[in-house]
Design brief:
The chain is of the alpha+beta class and 476 residues long. The protein has two domains: 2-359, 3-Layer(aba) Sandwich (Beta-lactamase), CATH 3.40.710.10; 370-475, no CATH class. It contains 16 helices and eleven strands. The strands form three sheets. A six-stranded antiparallel β-sheet has the order 2-1-11-10-9-8, sandwiched between helices. A hairpin with a 5-residue loop joins β8 (300-303) and β9 (309-316). α3 packs across α8. The protein starts with a helix and ends with a helix.
Length: 476
Amino acid sequence: MLTSILSALIISVTSLGPTAAAPAAVDAAAIDALVEQYREQTSLPGVAVAVTHGTEVVHTAGYGHTPDGDAVSAHTVMAAASVSKSFTALAVLRLVEDGRIGLDDPVRVHLPEFTMADPRAADVTVRQLLDQTSGMSDTTHRSFSGPPVHTLEEAVAAMRDSALAADPGTRWEYHNPNFQVAARLVEVVGGVPFAEYLRRHVFAPLGMRDSGTADTARDLPPSARGHIKVLGLPVALPEPPAFGNGSGGVLTSAHDLAAWLIAQHNEGRGPDGAVVATPRSIAEAHTPSAVSESYGLGWFVGVTPSGARLIDHGGDLFTSTAYQALLPDSGHGIAVMANTGLQHGDAQALGERLIALVEGRQVPPAGDPSAVVDAVLLVLALAVAALAVRGVLRSGRWADRRRSAARLVPLVLPLLLLATVHRVVGYLYRGRDVAWLQVPHLYPTFTVVLAVASLGGVAVLVARLVAISARRADAG
């Protein structure tokens, strides 16, 4: 499971294959049928989809419902998550077009407040923020599990005591704060809040009237909240606390993403001809860096299973996901926003099936094995609870045998693991920063097992200590 999640977060494709065959004819009915089939197979509660071709909208629609029970439509506002990085990159490129910054300028020239406890930070360039080669890393700056921040200014200030994990420009590493610094740069150089800059220079020209940004999880509107799944069934939960503007804060709709996809395919011109970027800026964003070979400026670059060129980016929150894809060879654009969390990756899975539909490939059936895993873990939790009750009831007998107190130590190990489980998960994610409250959203039933084991261990420990004390009192 961890491998599949990591592959959704970091896609590494290093070469372009042959051009795919001519795409199949795709219409609204075919898209609707594919989406509804996927929802039936996975119990996906709500999803919004946009498909474009050249400068035309093929279909935008919503399916299912929000956590509040409202129907999802083409205009329902949902979270774009890390798809937001492409918007931040375009905002920076607009400043480059205006001659106000250069991509290879040191960030600190334009943003003096960007300081770190590492002299190498002075060499980090604007480009290196956007192509994720700055040297900043989750291993040296904990943006999720560290002290909370609420604004872009605070997010940049929180980096002052952090170091780099590599020399700037020498290693690619996915790190959300790269784009938070970039968004703060837009605020300072652009002279307006980041949300306002996007509204003026991207959203309004493209007619994206549903779109805006959120700073933290608490700013998400009800329609942008989502679910986890337990036993294969969706359970509505609030997104765990986190800051995400610049790296994952865009709120948008399927209707608006259609205009965005068209602008990406049409050299920066929207459906009505409005210009939001130059052809050079669009090409720059879609070109991979020499260091990563598969990541441009806020976009991954690779190929589809048929060998066609693919420019895409996924987005993962803990209760919702998003995905966008450009197919330059066929001219198609695809965007998906789903209100289930990253454990299931529904937005990207559905997006990949829509790509298969466009390319005329067989669409594989969908499935979600997590229901079986959940059932096994919940049975295990019941067994652990039963053993704990047995241990409490037999604590007197245990004390009568005058066992060593050292044998009580294993009883606290589940509690220690429960307290530090986010560090373990972060290690399994190859150093990614994970906050404790995010773990139950990733692995809800495993967290239940660990919590039951922790409570049971403590209960047995207390019962045995009480029994030992009573035996000593009787002996005295």
